[in-house]
């Protein structure tokens, strides 16, 4: 279980997350959508323990481990893929994880900084497959990605979700709904669920679309 | 097994070697002539003589850099102040070695040991190694402290000798300084565990310690116009033996301390907030 209680986080003096509450259970993929700048990345960082909440609590059961896969890779640019993974596991485990994540074999001895964005995302997924943390926070992995990348990652996510909690943020509603019928919306610093059935209501659907377009504040969703 | 132990104790050194050699290769590849004659996988290790040579060069460069830093430190905080003090204090002018020993002992051996701890600093490599790669924190910090001790002992001695301290005394002082480093780390851990309010204001507390040390190091010799000969005792056998006893005891505590993850987490938070 991942439990977020009254979470508050200030970023650059702006209260990005105001009062977020949600409980995530093992075995689920939880898409979290929000407009650009709504705090999705910050939420992932709080979950992964990369920044300290300014209020509230995040509780992770199990071994308490969490990893965040960043939208913009923070991998060391001047290590090769092989050298980077060598710090985490044996070369056999690294090769198996890379194969499953779809990291092309020809880039094993290339600098990480020279790899394209999708390859770096795949490499981060390989790290997830190696470390197998209890909570996996994927920050906008499928926004502006190729169909091939999406199709490669879906089986991995389907397999991982059985024993883990997977939180996937996105600014794209269709991407989010392809992961799960119910979607969590981060709006005004709060988390609210929009169920599959609610999306059938045109006003709700439009409100979510408007929200993602970066506009208004939405009472329909709350 | 030896390689495994080195990798467990010094992963940060290995990363620097790898990144350094890769950066050099990256720069060399910008030269067309070299690029044309470079093998297909220039960054791979297998049978790559160039990469091995560059890693050796990077290691040598890092060692030279350590020596340069130590020498610059000794000359800036000890030799230059001695020169300035000597202009108005004739006795101090004749006590070059003793004055430098005195200043170095106050500012580096004592003050540096208390304020400049390894465990409570974090670099980007540390964050990757400890958070993502999951290296064993106890071994990691142990390795960093041992590395720092060796650098202090060897290069500190050379720097002090270059600054005019007799070779024997220079190396005794540098070894004593190196042996006190783990004692400082344990002191820092103790403050962290039992005096959290002081630890949370580490910058302020370090500032006070440094200020007091500077006054003792510079103002006192100026006020007394000389350094007492008894200060030669800081490189004497009793101090050396004391340090030699405290150092392994401190290293034992550091190796067995179980609370590194909490420290790492706080450092990650602090680093992230500073970055913002």
Structural write-up:
The complex is a heterodimer of chains A (222) and B (276). Helix content of chain A is 32%, strand content 25%. Chain A is α/β, with parallel strands linked by helices. In chain A, helix 3 crosses helix 4 (117-131). The longest helix of chain A is centred in the middle third of the chain and has 15 residues, at 117-131. Chain A is globular and about 50 Å long. Residues 215-222 of chain A have low confidence and may be disordered. Chain B has 276 residues and is mainly alpha-helical. Chain B contains 13 helices and no strands. Chain B has helices at residues 2-9, 11-28, 32-37, 49-88, 90-94, 96-115, 124-132, 137-162, 167-194, 196-200, 202-224, 237-256, 260-275. In chain B, helix 4 (49-88) crosses helix 6 (96-115). The two termini of chain B are 42 Å apart. The model of chain B has no long low-confidence stretch (mean pLDDT 90). Classes of the chains: A alpha/beta (222), B mainly alpha (276).
Q: What oligomeric arrangement do these chains adopt?
A: heterodimer
SSE order of chain B, one letter for each helix or strand = HHHHHHHHHHHHH
Order of helices and strands of chain A: EEEHEEHHHEHEHEEH
What's the total helix number of chain A? 7
What's the rounded overall pLDDT mean of chain A?
88
Shape verdict of chain B: globular
**Average of per-residue pLDDT values of chain B:** 90
What is the helical fraction of chain B, as a range of percent?
over 70%
Biggest sheet architecture of chain B: none
Q: Using only CA atoms, what is the Rg of chain B? A: 22 Å
Low-pLDDT segments of chain B: none
In this structure, how is the largest beta sheet of chain A organized? Answer: 6 strands, mixed
Fraction of residues of chain A in helices? 25-40%
């Amino acid at each position: 279980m991942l439990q977020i209680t009254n979470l508050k986080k200030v970023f650059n003096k702006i209260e990005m997350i105001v009062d977020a509450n949600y409980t995530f259970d093992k075995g689920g993929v939880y898409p979290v959508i929000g407009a650009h700048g709504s705090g999705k990345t910050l939420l992932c960082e709080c979950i992964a323990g990369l920044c300290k909440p300014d209020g509230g609590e995040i509780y992770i059961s199990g071994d308490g481990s969490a990893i965040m896969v960043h939208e913009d890779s923070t991998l060391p640019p001047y290590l090769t893929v092989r050298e980077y993974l060598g710090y985490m596991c044996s070369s056999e485990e690294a090769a198996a994880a890379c194969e499953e994540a779809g990291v092309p074999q020809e880039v094993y001895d290339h600098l990480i900084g020279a790899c394209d964005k999708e390859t770096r995302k795949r490499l981060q997924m390989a790290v997830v497959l190696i470390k197998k943390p209890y909570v996996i926070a994927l920050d906008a992995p499928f926004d502006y990605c190729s169909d091939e990348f999406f199709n490669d990652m879906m089986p991995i996510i389907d397999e991982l979700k059985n024993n883990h909690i997977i939180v996937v943020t996105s600014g794209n509603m269709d991407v989010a709904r392809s992961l799960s019928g119910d979607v969590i919306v981060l709006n005004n610093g709060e988390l609210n669920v929009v169920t599959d059935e609610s999306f059938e209501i045109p006003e709700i659907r439009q409100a979510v679309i408007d929200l993602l377009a970066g506009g208004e504040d939405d009472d329909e969703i709350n | 097994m030896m390689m495994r132990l080195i990798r467990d104790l010094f992963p940060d050194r290995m990363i620097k070697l790898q990144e350094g050699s890769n950066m050099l290769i990256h720069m060399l590849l910008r030269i067309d002539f070299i690029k044309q004659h470079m093998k297909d996988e220039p960054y791979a290790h297998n049978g790559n003589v160039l990469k091995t040579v560059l890693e050796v060069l990077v290691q040598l460069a890092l060692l030279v850099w350590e020596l340069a830093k130590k020498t610059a430190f000794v000359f800036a905080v000890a030799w230059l102040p001695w020169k300035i003090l000597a202009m108005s204090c004739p006795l101090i002018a004749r006590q070059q070695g003793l004055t430098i020993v005195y200043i170095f002992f106050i500012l580096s051996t004592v003050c540096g040991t208390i304020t400049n701890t390894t465990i409570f600093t974090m670099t980007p490599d540390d964050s990757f190694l400890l958070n993502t790669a999951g290296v064993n924190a106890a071994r990691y910090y142990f390795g960093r402290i041992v590395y720092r001790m060796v650098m202090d002992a060897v290069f500190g001695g050379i720097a002090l000798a270059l600054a005019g301290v007799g070779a024997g005394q220079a190396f005794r002082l540098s070894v004593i300084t190196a042996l006190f480093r783990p004692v400082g780390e344990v002191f820092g851990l103790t403050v962290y565990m039992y005096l959290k309010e002081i630890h949370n204001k580490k910058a302020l507390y370090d500032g006070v310690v440094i200020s007091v040390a500077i006054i003792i190091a510079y103002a006192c010799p100026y006020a007394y116009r000389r350094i007492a000969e008894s200060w030669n005792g800081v490189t004497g056998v009793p101090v050396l033996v004391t340090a030699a006893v405290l150092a392994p005891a401190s290293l034992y505590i550091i190796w067995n301390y179980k609370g590194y993850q909490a420290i790492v987490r706080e450092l990650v938070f602090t680093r992230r907030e500073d970055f913002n």
